[in-house]
Automatic annotation (TrEMBL), chain A:
Region (Disordered): 288-313
Compositionally biased tracts (Low complexity): 300-313
Cellular localization per UniProt: Cell membrane
Keywords: Cell membrane, Membrane, Transmembrane, Transmembrane helix, Transport
Recorded family membership: Belongs to the binding-protein-dependent transport system permease family.
A Pfam family the protein falls into: BPD_transp_1
InterPro entries, sorted: AA_ABC_transptr_permease_3TM, ArtM/GltK/GlnP/TcyL/YhdX-like, MetI-like, MetI-like_sf
Protein name, per record: Amino acid ABC transporter permease
Membrane-related topology note: Multi-pass membrane protein
Species lineage: Bacteria, Bacillati, Actinomycetota, Actinomycetes, Kitasatosporales
Sequence intervals crossing the membrane: 20-41, 62-89, 101-123, 231-259
Automatic annotation (TrEMBL), chain B:
Major place of residence: membrane
Domain ABC transmembrane type-1 residues, every copy: 15-204
Species whose genome carries this gene: Streptomyces durocortorensis
Name of this chain's protein: Amino acid ABC transporter permease
Keyword Metal-binding belongs to the record: no
TM regions (residue ranges): 15-39, 60-79, 185-207
Length: 313, 215
């Protein structure tokens, strides 16, 4: 949108200039990639033997185990952070001042500390032999605080009339929170909650530092234990593991955008509903057509109205 | 109490390390982020694709993996023997630049359309429109998100400590290896980070108030 506003539609001179920029720009980027690939090839990182290690069933098993370990830590952290997030959000919105203060202090403290510091302290101080639980606990605490703030924003964005109406019906505070406010808050904040879950998934890689055998730690072990042609295959393992990470994160964010779109569609769906009845009256014989006809019939009228609005402007 | 007094020089070095790596990498992130944001709205398609690819790649890569790439792959491509400080701040700066880019791009979107249209109708080129008209106005809306991005950067700098940089997390690790109790160590490190993050948010609040006058 904004891009088209920032520059005129190019005339003949600008088209030529843009084309020159495009060629020069892509050449520069391509040159950068080619030079790095050549440097890597010179040092033997692109030799087929380097990539052949991924054909060994042992290494494949290692990577599969590591993905499972990462997902395990992520699952625990996701559940922990959501539960803690709900508790802290409710605590922060509580009517009792001490609870409110305690929740606020907890959130503000752990949100402003590096996650790594928390995880390391939990690992050394309490759970030395259980690095998975230390990782999950640290992730839950940090992300729980963030989720609590997200949920609080969601609860505050619910129109005031909702809780007033619920109180007028005689619901208790707990009922208002669990049956009226929280469901609406979660629904409106779902995209943000999921994008924070993506951050949680990325942060499981901090298990690397507390020696939890997740994907990154396994990659490092593979790279530093298998010597091929006299060098360690860091380049190939990082590329493989990086691809796995990016794929997992993109899948989760795709879920977030899908849910966001779905939420938007639901609102328009309510309006369209009565239009379905009309086509069944003129054409009784064409049963399979009626569904398509209904959708088609609703479409043009809406478009026509929009088109009329534009032309009037 | 003892753990701090006995090891104060190391703690001071760690604190200075955290501050300097934060400063250097936020400078890298700021410059790179604005440039990539410029790419993403530019009239030249390959640059736009490059910007989009950059942001998608950097945002979906765990920072720890990026550090691993910078410490084991990049020295193979560029000249070897770069100091961990340079590598660490490059990794942090590149990672954060994608977030800065998105903040700047959304800031550009909030500038009223009439401004860019007026700039174009006076005959300004794309670079002039962006530099003279749009970006200065976008600054105001970009500052609050930038503040939280830089605070996140400070927190992320702890990971550099795990990659042989001198900074506060490195101190925490050293102290717990020396056998000190983790709780006081944790409290002192936490205080160190809180000082840095509060300074950043204070500076940005000051900047925000300064900018507010122009409205």
């Amino acid at each position: 949108m904004s891009a088209s506003v920032l520059y005129d539609s190019p005339g003949p001179k600008a088209v030529v200039r843009n084309r020159i920029y495009a060629v020069v720009g892509s050449l520069a980027i391509a040159a950068l990639i080619v030079v790095s690939l050549m440097r890597l090839a010179d040092k033997g990182h692109l030799a087929p033997e380097m990539w052949d290690i991924f054909n060994y069933s042992g290494i494949r098993q290692n990577i599969a185990d590591a993905v499972v370990a990462t997902l395990k830590a992520f699952g625990l952290a996701a559940i922990g952070s959501l539960v803690l997030g709900v508790l802290l959000a409710v605590g922060r919105l509580s009517d009792h001042q001490p609870i409110r203060w305690a929740a606020t202090a907890f959130i503000e403290l752990f949100r402003s500390l590096p996650l790594l510091i928390t995880i390391y302290a939990i690992w050394v101080g309490f759970l030395t032999d259980y690095s998975m639980w230390a990782l999950a606990a640290g992730l839950s605490i940090y992300n729980g605080c963030v989720q609590a703030e997200v949920l609080r924003a969601g609860v505050n964005s619910v129109p005031k009339g909702q809780s007033e109406a619920a109180y007028a019906l005689g619901m208790s505070k707990t009922q208002v929170m669990t049956t009226v406010l929280m469901p609406q808050a979660v629904r409106s904040m779902l995209p943000t909650i999921i994008s924070q879950l993506v951050v949680t998934l990325k942060d499981t890689s901090l298990g690397f530092i507390i020696l939890y055998p997740e994907l990154l730690q396994t990659a490092r072990l593979i790279a530093s234990n298998t010597q091929v042609n006299g060098i360690y295959p860091y380049v190939s393992t990082t590329i493989v593991v990086g691809t796995i990470y990016i794929a997992m994160c993109l899948l989760l964010s795709a879920l977030a955008t899908w849910i966001e779109k779905r939420g938007r569609r639901a609102k328009t769906g309510i309006k369209v509903a009565p239009g379905v009845q009309t086509p069944s009256i003129p054409m009784v014989g064409a049963v399979p057509d009626s569904g398509g006809g209904g959708a088609g019939g609703a479409g043009p009228t809406a478009d026509g109205a929009a088109g009329a609005g534009v032309s009037k402007d | 109490m003892n753990v701090l007094l006995d090891n104060f020089p190391a703690f001071r070095d760690g604190f200075i390390g955290t501050v300097s790596i934060t400063a250097v990498s936020s400078l890298i992130a700021l410059v790179l982020g604005v440039v990539v944001a410029g790419f993403r709205v530019s009239p030249v398609p390959p640059l736009r694709y490059f910007g989009t690819a950059w942001v998608t790649l950097m945002r979906n890569t765990p920072l720890t993996l990026l550090f691993l790439i910078f410490f084991f792959v990049v020295p193979e491509i560029l000249f070897p023997g770069m100091s961990p400080f340079v590598l660490g701040s490059l990794a942090l700066g590149f990672y954060t630049s994608s977030f800065v880019c998105e903040a700047v791009r959304s800031g550009i979107n909030t500038v009223p359309l009439g401004q860019a249209e007026a700039a174009r109708s006076v005959g300004m080129t794309f670079a002039q429109t962006l530099k003279i008209v749009v970006l200065p106005q976008a600054t105001r809306t970009v500052i609050p998100p930038l503040s939280s991005i830089f605070i996140a950067l400070t927190k992320n700098s702890a990971i550099a400590g795990a990659f042989s940089n001198t900074e506060l997390f490195g101190w925490q690790k050293l102290m717990s290896d020396k056998g000190y109790d983790i709780v006081p160590v944790f409290i002192w490190v936490a205080l160190g980070y809180l000082v840095v993050t509060f300074t950043i948010s204070g500076l940005f609040r000051l900047l925000e108030r300064r900018m507010e006058v122009a409205r």
